[in-house]
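Page 42, continued from yesterday. The earlier attempt failed because a stray header line got pasted into the input along with the sequence. Redoing it now with the clean sequence only.
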Amino acid sequence: MILTGLSLLGAAHASPASDLFGLVGSDLKRDYYGWSQTDRSALVEKYTAVLTTRCEGAGEACSFDTGRAVASEMLLELHDAHTSVRDAEAATRLNEVQNDLSVPRSGLRVIKQPGGLLVVGVQPDSPAERVGLRVYDLIVTVNGKPAGKDKSIDSLAFVRLERASTPLSLLLQRAGQTTVLSFQLTPELAKARDVPTLSYPRPGTALITLPTFLPGDSARLFLGKVAEAQQGGARELVIDLRFNGGGRLDQCVAAASIFRPVIYQARFQGGSWTYGGLSGEQVPALSARIDRNSAVWNGPAAVLVGENTASCAEVFAFFAHKTGVKVVGSPTKGVGNSGVSFFPLPDQGVLSLTMLRAFDENGDALPDHIEPDLSAPTDLAALSTTSTDNTLDAALKLLSAPAANSGQSGTEK
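This time it went through. Structure tokens are written below.
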């Protein structure tokens, strides 16, 4: 593979940059199978010249960073957001979750904002939960350094501190409080994955926050929370996918089948594969004799989505919506009609390469993104200042409408 990549630039100019770029270019030309109509050979040729110019003067010392930067620019012109180059750190984080590794963690899931790091998840029985941190707290400093977008501590730097088992001193703003709060916590060994959480925003309504489909037991964990909500007497169900970036196709297809059986057809170079889901579990295929109305949940339901809802989470939202589940929020990322595989790169990073196109049971292509039934973009500033969740509030109001409550209760069949 490396030799093939080097031939794009010429062996005389072999360097770390050309090793990496050559692999990306050859894999892109040979294995890509997405929806982009861009001439990939011409694209690789164009950016081979760009790399040659960037590496002038550096010769064999031209770095992986340069090769990755040029490859990333090239892939932007492919106009397929599913295909990208990830550096070694991002590849390590992916590996931790996919292989269910235990790593030092605080239990917090954060996203960077201009004013700080917004907490969008607190794992049960974690150091963060035990000291009292809450979802939608806004972390403004970490160990005395400013946190947030374009600050010393962004979301990646925060994870680095966790993995180093560094004691964390946090200053944060909490909705409804005028004073800055101080918290101390030390990361502990825990699973790298995030698990679904269950809460009740009002009596009779269950809210399941579903953070990822990457782990191989995501559907089982989700199904467990649905059962717990049913046992708790929930009559309505809200599923929060606003910060779910996707994961394994078998898992999101299985999870979406709590509403109705799901068939997802994946077409790739030289063949196809079918993913089936029945009553929240993965099945290799669905018999024509299966009751197509079979469901775990029959009551009113809504799915919350936004710009960070991507890939497999978009697939979940699509199939849920087909059964009448309401989608609330803002348009999703736009990679829901394809799937990727990961290829190792010589800098220990990975190439995320689109290798399949997605279709439903009838052979119709899935949409690239999901448009909500009810537009209610999440106001992140309001979450951290007044604890107002306008997206969730809109979903609750929608579920309270008479038409939404005309169905059966959320009992297991």
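Notes: The first strand starts at residue 84 and ends at 86.
Reminder to self: strip header lines before submitting.
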